[in-house]
Amino acid sequence: MATNSPQDAPLEALEPFDEHNRRLLGEVHPQTWENPTPDGRYHLVVVGAGTAGLVTAAIASSLGARVALVEKGLMGGDCLNVGCVPSKGVIGAARAWHAARRAHEDFGGPRVAAGDAAPGDFGFAMERMRRLRADISAIDGARRFRDELGVDVYLGHGRFIAGDALEVDGRRLEFRTAVVATGARAAAPPIDGLADVGYRTNETIFSLTELPRRLGVIGGGPIGCELGQSFARFGSEVTLFQQGAHVLSREDQDASELVERALRRDGVDLRCGTRVVSVARRGAAIVVTVEREDGSARDEIEVDELLVAAGRAPNVEDLGLEAAGVEYDRRGIDVDDRLRTSSSSVYAIGDVASAIKLTHLSDAHARMVVRNALFFGRQRVSDLVVPWCTYTSPEVAHVGYYADDAREAGYEVETLTIELADNDRARLEGEDEGFLRVHLKKGTDTILGGSLVAARAGDMVVPLALAATHGIGLSKFSDTIIPYPTQGEVYRRAGDMYNRRKLTPMAEKIFAWWFKLLS
């Protein structure tokens, strides 16, 4: 079983090589592609055609710059090929299967519980994902960037050969400025026997065409939780191993515990506080040997497939960064607050240069680097307010500071929490598990950060991100008319709660005097 990323594996290894994947490859790495011949120095050479590189190249070219885009693997990067797009297709299918099953119990619908109906068609669900991924792929495709956007697209391995030149497919590309946007890949933890058993990562799990009866998941971060829950909903017996005390460890503990309850309710055997000691083959099965963190117990669990979701490693190897004078280490390329590397002519953006690895942050980096690299901009990464979401059910979304982080930054913090159980729309739709939590600068309505746990938290966090980014106080939500009934009403309730807390004893005395006067 392949464990490499598509960037390192032969392109034809993207499995299954059906009509949908052939169509995908025809867009993001056409086999008959002919690289252009360089004609003079480029204003900008972009290495890597994931989200960060594509957005950089598209914006710079639209502004009139001469741009070259270099990609050795699949254009679209992780997001299109092995990340956001296929995972949300799989999650969407799993949610639909789950909704059909709970319709009877919760809403009086026809009985289609797992024991009363034929199992679903996992192969159909995965084919649907591949079809939709192929449908979307033209947006990131080589022909669109060449023909519509005017970018010189080079498919091949690019390596720096100087501080102002890069070589690809025997061609020398000279540049004024270069941007490295080579992204990251799934990292393998140092577990005895792991390299020998044939494991899956997010880069190979979407090639499955048959549902594994037993799936082991190493890692309780977003990828492990999202896919573990989805495969459990499809019908796999899922065991998730998490070394820490809780899954989604960077989130508020209340949020993590809500997700844990949901995972267990969906059938995931959640093993928190557990260290994977070794893995080995036993016939067709994979044996995962684990022990409690305190060393109190050891156990063996047999699975048919093993998904490793234990972090990501930046793609910095074999790029010739030394020749360009670019400093890097195993954590990625060193950049300053304006995304400049140690070389005055080279910038780095996205997952290869950021501890926070998110598609939408890569997009933000791209917009920033065009201004900073080509137009003497002075935008800073530290000024960005970054939201994110984990697409479990319920979803967990966050923006800005957590309470402890805000205190460490020197703020006095006041926290308001609105429970979804008090929201009419959430109750009516049976989605009342969750909350809105907002952290304010004490004594003001200034939003420092906040979290949402809800069925559609990723969509619902947008107003909070807008307010935190542009300094819109929480009290403004009280003055905003919000449709009833919607889950978005939690914002108005939070604004009302803040205003009620602002009612001082002196103000209460003044109101009492006023109404006494009116009586």
What does this protein look like?
There is one protein chain. The protein is an alpha/beta fold and 519 residues long. Helix content is 33%, strand content 23%. It has 16 helices and 23 strands. It has helices at residues 19-28, 51-62, 77-81, 84-107, 122-137, 142-148, 194-197, 222-234, 253-265, 359-374, 403-408, 424-428, 457-460, 462-470, 489-501, 505-518; strands at residues 42-47, 67-71, 152-155, 158-162, 165-168, 171-180, 184-186, 214-218, 237-242, 269-272, 274-282, 285-292, 298-303, 305-308, 312-314, 328-329, 332-333, 346-348, 387-390, 395-400, 413-419, 435-441, 447-454. The strands form six sheets. Strands 1, 2, 3, 4, 5, 6 and 18 form a seven-stranded mixed β-sheet that branches. A five-stranded antiparallel β-sheet has the order 19-20-23-22-21, with helices on both faces. Strand 16 and strand 17 form a beta hairpin. Helix 1 packs parallel to helix 5 and helix 4 (84-107) crosses helix 5. The longest helix is centred in the N-terminal third of the chain and has 24 residues, at 84-107. The protein is globular. It starts with 18 loop residues before the first helix and ends with a helix. The model is unreliable at 1-10 (pLDDT under 50).
